[in-house]
Design brief:
The protein has about 170 residues and is an alpha+beta fold. It is built from 7 helices and 4 strands. The chain has a single domain, classed as NADH Oxidase (3-Layer(aba) Sandwich), CATH 3.40.109.10.
Length: about 170
């Protein structure tokens, strides 16, 4: 296993202080590819990604996220949507209520790790008013906004947030 990948996973931290600048289209494309490379149940890929660059729209999304202003300060804001009906076609209720959310969560994690690898700050935001975000981006009813991820040049926290002890959260069977 490549040590740099493990380091990226272990050392990634959320960034809530963005310092301006733009993200080149080439890097945005790399971030889209990283998200779309995530695993998904039945390889259905039940996700849709929005990237927001317009300041007014980023500010609206920040307000929808209960005033988390740092979102609007990022160079771009990704809104990751699940497509429940796409999963329901193959997996029924479990697909629409669980698998599509698991799949989009995997895509978000790929985005966070890829952003870190490209030396950008990023933060997974799950606290937001879904309907306000839907309205801000004119998101169709077949898509459900499940995560907001601001990405850009930023000041990453120098201190890692504490993690649970492995013995408290893991049990080996066998």
């Amino acid at each position: 296993m490549e040590e740099s990948i493990i380091k990226a996973i272990m050392n990634r931290s959320s960034c809530r202080e963005f310092v301006g600048g733009e993200i080149p289209d080439e890097d945005i494309s790399t971030l889209f590819k990283a998200m779309s490379s995530a695993p998904s149940a039945g390889n259905l890929q039940p996700w849709f990604f929005y990237v927001v660059k317009i300041t007014d729209v980023k500010e609206t999304i920040a307000k929808a996220a209960y005033g988390q202003k740092f979102i609007a300060d990022a160079a771009v804001v990704f809104v990751i949507c699940a497509m429940p009906a796409k999963c329901a076609q193959m997996y029924g209720k479990r697909g629409s209520e669980l698998y599509c959310l698991q799949d989009t969560a995997a895509a978000v994690e790929n985005l966070l790790i890829a952003a870190d690898a490209l030396d950008y700050g990023a933060c997974w935001v799950g606290a937001f008013d879904e309907e306000l975000v839907r309205k801000a981006l004119a998101i169709e009813q077949d898509k459900r906004p499940v995560a907001i991820v601001p990405v850009g040049s930023g000041i990453k926290s120098a201190q890692q947030t504490p993690r649970s002890n492995i013995s408290d959260i893991c049990k080996t069977i066998g």
